[in-house]
Amino acid sequence: MLVNAPEQLRAGIDHKVKAMVAGAAPPQAIMEGAERIGVELTHVYGLTEVYGPAAVCAKHPEWEQLPIGERAALNGRQGVRYVTQESMAVLDPETLEPVARDAQTMGEICFRGNITMKGYLKNPEATLDAFSGGWFHTGDLAVVHPDGYVQIRDRSKDIIISGGENISTIEIENVLYAHPAVFEAAVVAGPDDKWGEVPCAFVALKEGVAPVS
Question: E-strand spans in the chain?
C-alpha cells in the first residue's frame, strides 16, 4: 500500500525508514518499490512454532554496489539462523539429507534449536509428524544458492502439480507483480481436465488502470 500510494501521501519519506517484512516471501517488485520510496526492508522468516522470526536475510555491504533489481532479489532470500536456533536447513523430505546448493533442487525448510517448540498441545500425533527425523518440518519448500542463502519457492500444500511438473505460485506472482499495472496478485491451482491442475491468477489492478483483453 505504501509503495503504490499517491506521491503526495508519501511526502516526507525522504530518508531511510527501517522496517521488517515477513509472513511470506515478498515479491521482488515490492522490495524494489520500498527502496525507491526510502524504506529499507529487512526480510525475516519463521513460523509460530519456531518463535516467529527465526532466520534473517543478513545483507552484505558489497550488495549496496549492485543494481536495485539485483539487490532486491538478494534481499528476498533467507538462510541466516537466529543465534538461538541450532540449525536451519533445506532437506530432502524423504531422506532428510541436505539438498544441493545449486539454486534448483527443492527441499523442505527445517529447524531445530532452543526457540523451536516442544510440541503441539495435547496432540502427540501432530507433534510426532512435525518432528520426523529430529527436525521441525515447516512445510515450506525452498532451494539453496551456492552462497548458502535460501530462496523460498512455495508452501508444500500450495505447489501446483500440472502434468507432473511442479509449479511455484510464488514465482508466478513475482512475474505478475513486475507488471506496472498490477496492484495485488495471488496464484492458486485451478482444475484442468487434461493436466489435472493449472495456475489460476487473481489480479487486482492499480487505480485508474483498465484491464486489457
Answer: 17-21, 39-47, 52-56, 80-81, 85-91, 107-113, 136-144, 150-155, 160-162, 165-167, 182-192, 196-205
